[in-house]
Amino acid sequence: MSTQRIIIIGGVAGGMSAATRLRRLIEDAEILVLERGGHVSFANCGLPYYLGGVIEERESLLLQTPASLGSRFGLDVRVHREVTAIDRDAKTVSVRNVLTGEQSVERYDSLVLSPGATPVRPPLPGGERMLTLRDIEDVDRAMSELDSAPRTALVIGAGFIGLEVVENLVHRGLDVTLVELGDQVLPPLDPEMAGPVADRLRAAGVDVRLGTQVSEIGPDTATLSDGSTVPAEFVLASIGVRPETSLAVAAGLALGERGGIRVDSQLRTSDPSIYAIGDAVEKTDAISGEQRLVALAGLANRHGRLVADAISGKTIRVRDAFGTAVVGLMGLTIAATGWNEKLLRATGRDIRVIHTHPASHTGYYPGATSMSLKLVVDARTDEILGAQGIGGDGVDKRIDVISTAMAGGILASELADLELAYAPQFSSAKDPVNMLGYVALNAVDGLTRSIQWHELDAELAAGAVLVDVRTESEHAEGAIPGSINIPLDDIRSRIAEIPDRRLIVHCKVGQRGHTAVRLLSQLGRDAVNLDGGYLTWNAGMTARVNAERRLVPELRLAAAASAVS
Q1: CA 419 to CA 416: how far, in whole Å?
Q2: CATH code that applies to domain 127-239
Q3: pLDDT in tens, 326-346
Q4: Which residues, listed in sequence order, are joined to residue 275 by a DSSP beta bridge?
Q5: What secondary structure does DSSP assign to 399-426, as a single string?
Q6: CA quadruple 294, 300, 302, 307: dihedral positive or negative?
Q7: Residue 290 to residue 347: CA distance in whole angstroms
Q8: CA atoms of 431 and 398, how far apart (whole Å)
Q9: pLDDT value at residue 544
Q10: Which of 236, 239, 181 lies closest to 208, judged by CA?
């Protein structure tokens, strides 16, 4: 038998994971990696931090070279090689050396496509000044411009990478404007969770422009769709990516409904000799079961390993994707997994939502910081559909635990009984994940009903009474308009002061509200808890007011602004 020849197109993340795993599985295979760019196996997730000087040395981004990969793994890695065509009948690929123009044809037995995705660049006047950040060549161009010492920067797009770029440009001392077409930063989050992120950006001096877009880029300024002009000596766009499928399309391979390459359960394309992985490939969504595009390095690397197993003859299992992601921003940790509330409600899913605001570890141990956690649950089955977290230490750990629970089919109420590591400097005896489970279990058992911050206005309009069970001093510092203040400890003695109507009870974060609901219910009153308490309501209303101001600039929401200030 002749030696198996495997060609991998794309030498970053998934492609190189596939190549090195293949070598560990099939020592006598001939493995050829073709990369259009000048570098392979580089740390693309570290690019923003090199811009900001957090990563000081460019070489730190270059994890491997063709020479090192050849020496250790016996791989034939060729950079500056663009595959221009695939001949599926002959099982060959046409290759062009992008530096010399030299053409060649390479034979394969198995072919792996890992072409990645290309940044979206909107066509607009002056758009040639827009930089993007996907590879080493991109970061070199950006660093060249930064070396000319610009004072101002414009970042277009407030997703995960866009915010990383913003933070690092601020770290370099630039005055930064952030422009986002949507009405919030970080679209994977819900408004009340994203609002504090925008607040942190503004507190750091970033000019955050939401609900608008760039219409023209000049020599050192940019004009926005609302007619305003912002300084923009340095311009970088991070408004999303689209799967690189041109080669697959030209070869007649099937695409999916989202425009990515379609693969089966073994990562094979419509041609059984051709596999595909990475950002160009559609994944199965773990919540809906539908196909979606998920551009995450972790998925690409894992699928690179799996495709090597499949080529070597193993039967693999490709897990559905939750889209778990995390970003650090100016001292905040922001993480999410699964679907958010706004998307689930838009699809008509019957859901239950839980907000908590725990500390990262026990309050008596120094250094505890607060966090906000949100859990979205199927109201009928108790299945966890998504989670979001924002705060300081420990947010990433909690979202990782929840994502793992989702993968294992653990129900929301079963989080209450998870055995998690505890010591005062790391957690609490009742871990924040356990606390989410307690709230979910109370809901399943019918002990405490709740409503969301965005449902309060309708409840009050229908005649409900809002009862603030915080202390008088807390109420005086900031209160929801129309609430009556009866502290939790006074409810029994002052029950006659509480109208005998439907009661919406709230405290600061929800825990005292739960106790009050249990007490009032046993005293014969119809009471529900305002989920997440005043903190969640305040964050949600602040986000709502800011969105309304953007949509209707002439609207003056003085009363609402005063209420949430």
Answers
A1: 9
A2: 3.50.50.60
A3: 999 999 999 999 999 999 999
A4: 112, 268
A5: HHHHHHHHHTT--TGGGGG------TTT
A6: positive
A7: 13
A8: 9
A9: 85
A10: 181
What DSSP designation does 360 have? S
**Contact in structure between 487 and 470 (CB atoms under 8 Å):** yes
On whether the 450-550 domain is CATH 3.40.50.1820, my answer is no
Instruction: Retrieve residue 2's tokens.
Output: 């002749």
Nearest to 289 by CA among 349, 336, 334: 349
Mean pLDDT of the residues in the chain: 94
507 is catalytic: no
Q: Which of 25, 26, 43, 45 is catalytic?
A: 45
CATH H-level, domain 5-43+60-117+242-311: superfamily: FAD/NAD(P)-binding domain (3.50.50.60)
SS3 308: helix
Residues 419 and 498 sit within 8 Å (Cβ to Cβ): no
pLDDT at 99 (0 to 100): 97
Q: 464, 529 in Cβ contact below 8 A?
A: no
Helix (H, G, I), strand (E, B) or coil at 87: strand
C-alpha span between 292 and 284 (Å, rounded): 6
Do the domains 127-239 and 5-43+60-117+242-311 match in fold? yes
Q: Residue length, the chain?
A: 565
Closest CA to 86 of 101, 103, 100, 105: 105
Tens-digit pLDDT profile for residues 97-140: 999 999 999 999 999 999 999 999 989 999 999 999 999 999 99
Under the banding of pLDDT at 50, 70 and 90, the label for residue 152 is very high
Spatial CA neighbour of 302 closest among 278, 283, 284, 325: 278
Structural domain spans, the chain: 5-43+60-117+242-311, 127-239, 331-444, 450-550
Phi-psi region of 85 (alpha: psi -120 to 50; beta: other; left: phi over 0): beta
pLDDT of residue 119: 93
Residue 551 has pLDDT above 70, yes or no: no
Q: How far apart are CA 452 and CA 530, in angstroms?
A: 6
Has residue 565 got a pLDDT over 60? no
Confidence label for 3 from pLDDT (cuts 50, 70 and 90): confident
Amino acid at residue number 70: G
Extended strands (E) in 453-534:
465-468, 484-485, 503-506, 527-530
pLDDT tens-digit readout, 423-468:
999 999 999 999 999 999 999 999 999 999 999 999 999 999 999 9
CATH superfamily of 331-444: FAD/NAD(P)-binding domain (3.50.50.60)
Task: Quickly list DSSP for 3-72.
Answer: PPEEEEE--STHHHHHHHHHHHH-TT-EEEEEESSS-SSB-GGGHHHHHTTSS--GGGGB---HHHHHHH
Picking from 182, 169, 175, 118, the residue whose alpha carbon sits closest to that of residue 151 is 175
| Amino acid (1-letter code) at residue 142 | A
Q: What is the pLDDT at residue 267?
A: 98
Tell me, what's the pLDDT at 549? Answer: 58
DSSP reduced 3-state for 175: strand
